Amino acid sequence: MVICRFRSLLSLSKTNSFFLSSPSTSFSIRTFSSSHIPQHLQNVGFVGLGNMGSRMAINLVKAGYKLTVYDINSDVLKKFSQMGVSTKKTPYEVSEASDVIITMLPSSAHVIDVYTGPNGLLHGGKLLRPWLFIDSSTIDPQTSTNLSATISKYTLKEKKGDQETPAKLEAPVSGSVIAAEAGTLTFMVGGSEEAFVAAKSIFFSMGKSAIYCGGAGSGSAAKICNNLAMAVSMLGVSEALALGQSLGVSATTLTKIFNCSSARCWSSDAYNPVPGVMEGVPSSRDYNGGFSSKLMVKDLNLAVESAKHAECKYPLTSQAQKIYSELCNGGHEARDFSCAFRHYYSGMDENQDH
């Protein structure tokens, strides 16, 4: 039984929840002792060192994990090598050196290629070293489910306790690049609950929350729903704030009202889209950094396809998809998705004197 397969791993993982301070933005970092990390978790491979993945990987190094990494960007690999992290030339080489694999990739196509393509993680036949694969990419639930089924057909080179076959979790994240750097991400996890519990300390080395959503595909589904709500919320707040400005009410005043009344939400009190209202968010730096409009379109496309598959109505999803597609077509694809306030609604920057 699955529960039996993970019993010995679970017993080693119950006391490994801890939190980290925000890592340095440089690549000169002090690592912690790995003596507190169970042997079955110590050797971690990481594939996909973009804006999110690089910061997640650095937090694992800070927590004391022995990391092996790969990315198509040779400059990023060089930086990790300079701080003492082992780098490899292919995902397959990472797999051969790791007991746990984490992937953080842009799309379903990238995930499929990294796992099953030439020199991919599963390239070496039906025997695998890693006992657990964790994919933190935001992809469609069908791809997550199919990949889990594929991995379940493989066999471990060495048994891990009672476990003879590798397991896979999908664990997409909620949180910006800032949260990835600070180690305050939220993981939405789908797959074997026993594997989730056995590897929980890895999640808490990179984030503040790890929520089990159900079987394979459920983590990906949860992430799509979360980003759908985030997109619609941001557009609603932006539309209301732009209208308020047109009616003579400042965005600062409206934001104060929203944040102590029924309109309060993340888009108003933590990620306000109006330049000049809030410091430390993309709107305060000309919408640079953060979560790009291009990625939002990708996630909304996933939501539309999932809604069609589930035969659900999706009028707000469809409208949000059109708005963000229009932003991208207008040259704003690299701007944070909160730029809809300025570049779709023509909202105005806030005077700091308000």
Keyword list:
354 residues, alpha/beta, Rossmann fold, N-(1-d-carboxylethyl)-l-norvaline Dehydrogenase, domain 2, disordered N terminus, 3-hydroxyisobutyrate dehydrogenase activity, oxidoreductase
Structure description:
By secondary structure, this protein is of the alpha/beta class. The protein folds into two domains: 2-215, NAD(P)-binding Rossmann-like Domain (Rossmann fold, 3-Layer(aba) Sandwich), CATH 3.40.50.720; 222-343, Orthogonal Bundle (N-(1-d-carboxylethyl)-l-norvaline Dehydrogenase, domain 2). It contains 16 helices and eleven strands. The protein has helices spanning 2-13, 39-42, 51-63, 74-82, 91-96, 108-116, 141-151, 177-182, 193-198, 200-206, 218-246, 251-258, 266-269, 293-310, 315-332, 340-343, and strands spanning 43-47, 66-70, 86-87, 100-103, 127-128, 132-135, 155-156, 167-170, 173-174, 185-191, 207-214. Strands 1, 2, 3, 4, 6, 8, 9, 10 and 11 form a nine-stranded mixed beta sheet that branches. Helix 14 (293-310) packs antiparallel against helix 15. The longest helix has 29 residues, at 218-246. The chain starts with a helix and ends in an 11-residue tail after the last helix. The model is unreliable at 1-31 (pLDDT under 50).
